[in-house]
Amino acid sequence: MKGKEKKVEEEIGNPTLVFTSAYEGDQQQSLNGSNDIGFAQTATLRRANGMETPAAEAYDFWQEVSDESRQIVPSSTNYRPKKSSRAWVVDGPFRPPYNDEDGNVINAADRITFVDNPGFSTSTRMSAGYFLVDYTVRFRWKVRKKQGGRFTKAEPYWESDEMVHRVTSAFDAENPEEAVVVNHQAAGNRTWNVQLPN
Length: 198
Prior knowledge:
Structural class: mainly beta
Helix content: under 10%
Strand content: 35-45%
Order of helices and strands: EEEHEEEEEEEEEEE
Radius of gyration: 21 Å
Largest sheet: 6 strands, antiparallel
Shape: elongated
Number of helices: 1
Number of strands: 14
């Protein structure tokens, strides 16, 4: 009887990364309102054409985020905004191993999609007493051929350009109850041809 033929490992080709985004929130906010101010975005890594290896077994793909904001909070003195910022970090569930139980990650054979809602919406909306003066959030993605073992951010990897969402709103301390326009700028859409490092 003939022995089992050894399976030839498939060559892992360069994937494509597709990013889409839009503002999803209120057009106005007020200090005593309950305001939704946020964005909807997806980042989809599609395996190379002709490949059979599932995307999650071929690539390590992760999302990183940094942000800064100024907001008026209930403890603000004379409506002085409180600043906060966060340096680049790996963004929550958007990394291997791809946990798709909560709907934030779609792990299909030919692609991995990160579904994200950055900002102050859903469970983190701006409640009464809070007012978002400005908010900038930046995203980038990193990709490499799948490495065994525990996930690390170690090089080498391919890195995308940064995609940036911005919100500004002019609070009027003379008329603190007034509803004010939310100026928003989503990062837009982008497609990259990923060049995997050797």
